[in-house]
Automatic annotation (TrEMBL):
Protein name: UDP-glucuronate 4-epimerase
SUPFAM superfamilies tied to this protein: NAD(P)-binding Rossmann-fold domains (SSF51735)
Sorted UniProt keywords: Isomerase, Membrane, NAD, Transmembrane, Transmembrane helix
Species in which this protein is naturally found: Zostera marina
Ligase listed as a keyword: no
NAD-dependent epimerase/dehydratase domain ranges (all copies): 91-329
Membrane-topology annotation of the record: Multi-pass membrane protein
Domain of life (superkingdom): Eukaryota
Amino acid sequence: MKMDKFNKTTSLRRVRQVQFLPCYQVTILTCLILIVFLFVFTLNHHSFPNTSTGRARSLLSSSSPEFNGGGQWEKLVRQSSTPRKVTGKTVLVTGAAGFVGSHCVLALKKRGDGVLGLDNFNSYYDPSLKRSRQAHLSKHGIFIVDADINDADLLKKLFEITPFTHILHLAAQAGVRYAIENPNSYIHSNIAGFVNLLEVAAKNTNPQPAIVWASSSSVYGLNTETPFSESDRTDRPASLYAATKKAGEEIAHTYNHIYGLSLTGLRFFTVYGPWGRPDMAYFFFTKAILDHGDITVFQAGDGDKEIARDFTYIDDVVHGCVGAIDTAEKSTGVPGGGQKHGPAQLRVYNLGNTSPVPVSRLVSILECLLGRSANKNTVRMPANGDVPYTHANVSLANQDFGYRPTTDLTTGLRKFVKWYVKYYSIQTKLVRY
Ligand SMILES: O=C(O)[C@H]1O[C@H](OP(=O)(O)OP(=O)(O)OC[C@H]2O[C@@H](n3ccc(=O)[nH]c3=O)[C@H](O)[C@@H]2O)[C@H](O)[C@@H](O)[C@@H]1O
């Protein structure tokens, strides 16, 4: 009873105190509440998005309301795409958190161009590797928008904020063999996504950008002429992946013809190196050798040429991409997709190493560098979309923008395994080879 009375008296006193707060205290209290509210609001809306947190991702996702309205988001887009040099270009790089994309973005940024990345961070392979590349790039002031190339509104918004002079379009569903498992993903990215990007570039940009994009050595398909030259037949793709890349080349022709878009397709030849793709043989062979797992090495049929690839080191490919950007002419179309002023540039180049290496030799080099033997199962190459042999003739790229590959497979793989053991914190002694 006594206790109840005490409580009642105390609370009555408190009520009275509140009731009789002087006017200036009420003002101070209101201000404090306002400040706290503003602080919380700012934290929620202005988190720095170049982190790999889910929170940051949700803020940047095109489906979130902040994606195209947020002042801070626009500021990041603007900052990233503003060139450091007066003569610098402004480049939108799709697939920027991918293997080739992340290397190109950095090279462009380092030389003073303004670069904005775009990537959908899909889970075709471990997205945490893509997030790590993103975190690495953010240290260099590069911002990657988290969105899909099929999102036309987002693309239009980006062009409203920055009139990009160039698009380096590398976003794609890669991998030859995965097309058997998930054919629609190739249609979604390599056909629908590419068309969406070209539609926006043709009809919603002013001035229209020049576009450099990733085709593939796989377009040569069952071609038997070697080395592969750009004028060789490319109408016999061996995989759906190759067919979508070949379709991309034809689609590029159409948009160049109707809308005057300047378009350059680059046929990459089995690109490898640090920060590479875990779905590629050199990468998962390395993992298997270190884990004492098995690898399957495809072998040619009796009397056939050995299975080989024109493995091309990433730095050489980056030089090729930058060279293609620097020699790309302006588009000739008019905003809104009307009549073009005149013919626009349409190009296709091989970016290879000019020296094919058998897959069995790739395995031997890895064994030497890692100081361990691989557990190999050698099987006849299955009908999985792979082609037996690739070999690039790069004289056209050399003539037009001085492309000259300089890294042999052993040197390139040495750099790759060095990166691999560091990135995955593997305690092993690499062999000097
Ligand atoms: O140059 C290209 O156009 C293509 O290069 C690579 O495709 P690929 O050459 O097949 O590269 P890997 O998947 O790393 O295969 C390399 C070689 O290893 C062989 N391989 C692959 C997997 C395996 O388990 N065993 C094996 O012997 C393949 O037949 C191939 O000869 C990329 O994955 C494609 O995205 C790219 O477009």
